[in-house]
Design goal:
The protein is of the alpha+beta class. Helices cover 15% and strands 41% of the residues. It contains 3 helices and 30 strands.
Length: 444
């Protein structure tokens, strides 16, 4: 190897150690950066010509990404912070600077990060400490989670969806049975709940209507009550109710073949002080839903009663449900399955979105961007979104952040090594220069 070859090699060594110094300094500088993935430096020997006497060689340094390294998860006072334990990445957007009112405009690129230190900004977006906007699956106005596309999560205008109806409480006074039996209609001038409606809600919070109809059966000396949902051609539930001499409910039997004639009823409930009820099985918004109609208490004057006077008139029913129909939004909470839950002042919570985790065939092939963000490359492969805990994406820790993977002890040792190597390469350069000066001096 000639003096010039040695000089070239030493210069490449200076450049390589400079690269190592850059990587080390970047690690040290980001030792407290949430979600930062430390890098290492790989050195490669390049031989320009190899014979019995080596002509010249160089060294090339390249930055080695360690994007799949797991950082220590630590608790945070930020209730919206999320940390990933596993291989996944958060999907995030970066703003392009343009906005209209409270609506932010975003760059078209897809970004990924492990920085889960999210907070809600003034416009309702969830933004991490690097000003990246969290993306996920959002629910529609009916409460259905849309997993077909990712959206930048915004919780500025969360409205409460009425809760699903489970129980309908019904209380009324029916007219005297004999008067009803005489003409199959209530006594003249009477007010009776022969047909009344009530608003109910399905699991998505959508409103529906149930109609209650009463009719007297002289053959069985009992009142029949049916419930029809959304004007269906046949009732969804029906029961036969008998009353004692005091006008109190004596028994209630659920019809087992609703809509059929003649009607068939199950075993009657006659236990005193038990609830007189029947069920309304139906399908609302594509989901099975069964509601219980509470008519009152068997053997009690509470709830539904019948007039004891044969000419007694009935009264309009008082109907209510267990649905909660209003609530003021108070904030959001994060759950370990990635659900974003809205909280309301009525002590109810409702799903508004879900955070998926992106995985890659080779996470180390991702391209680093500003703010602990990455973009996919041909080396990393395209992102695959999974729910937390599925397909190796990892689990989520709430009120937690992932620490930087920088190892200060190791990097300080590497720093000393890089410094010594840089000095040694510099010594080679000065020595080569001295040797060249000796050669030049030979001419004198």
């Amino acid at each position: 190897m000639s003096i010039f070859g040695a000089l070239d090699t030493a210069v490449s060594g200076l450049a390589a150690q400079s690269q190592a110094f850059t990587d080390i300094s970047n690690n040290i500088a980001n030792s407290q950066t949430v979600g930062y993935k430390a890098t290492d430096t790989n050195f490669s020997d390049y031989v320009l010509n190899s014979t019995a006497s080596q002509i010249s060689g160089t060294v090339v340094a390249s930055t080695a990404s360690e994007n799949n390294a797991q950082g220590t998860i630590t608790s945070s006072t930020n209730a919206l912070a999320l940390a990933i334990s596993g291989n996944g990445f958060f999907n995030v957007s970066e703003a392009n600077g343009a906005s209209t009112g409270t609506t932010q405009s975003f760059q078209p690129n897809d970004y990924y990060t492990r920085n889960g230190d999210f907070t809600e900004n003034s416009a309702g977006y969830l933004v991490n400490s690097s000003n990246e906007y969290l993306k996920g699956y959002m629910v529609d106005s009916s409460g259905n989670l849309n997993t077909s596309s990712l959206q930048t999560i915004n919780v500025a205008n969360v409205a409460f969806r009425p809760s699903e109806t489970g129980t309908i409480t019904y209380a009324a006074s029916l007219p005297g049975a004999t008067a009803a039996a005489a003409s199959a209609t209530p006594a003249a001038g009477s007010t009776t709940p022969t047909s009344q409606s009530q608003t109910i809600y399905d699991a998505s919070g959508a409103a529906h209507t149930v109609d209650f109809n009463w009719s007297y059966s002289q053959a069985s000396n009992a009142w029949n009550v049916s419930a029809t949902v959304d004007g269906a051609s046949t009732p969804s539930g029906s029961a036969q109710v008998t009353f004692n001499a005091a006008g109190q409910i004596a028994s209630v039997a659920q019809q087992t073949n609703v809509g059929s004639t003649p009607a068939t009823y199950g075993a009657a409930n006659t236990t005193t002080d038990s609830t007189a009820s029947f069920s309304i099985p139906t399908t609302l918004d594509g989901t099975s839903q069964t509601m219980t109609v509470d008519l009152g208490t068997i053997g009690s004057s509470s709830g539904t009663t019948m007039a004891t006077d044969v000419n007694g008139t009935g009264s309009s029913a008082t109907i209510s449900t267990d649905s909660v129909t209003s609530g003021n939004y108070t904030g959001i909470t994060m759950t370990s399955d990635g659900s974003i839950m809205a909280t309301f002042d009525n002590n109810k919570t409702q799903l508004v979105g879900k955070v998926p985790l992106a995985t890659f065939a080779d996470a180390n092939g991702l391209s680093s961007q500003d703010g602990e963000a990455y973009t996919a490359t041909s080396a990393s492969g395209a992102a695959t979104n999974n729910l937390a805990g599925a397909n190796g994406a990892g689990n989520l820790e709430t009120s937690s952040v992932e620490s930087s993977t920088t190892n200060l002890d190791s990097d300080l040792t590497k720093l000393i090594t890089a410094q010594n190597a840089y000095g040694a390469n510099a010594k080679v350069v000065t020595t080569a220069n001295e040797m060249l000066q000796t050669v030049l001096a030979m001419k004198q």
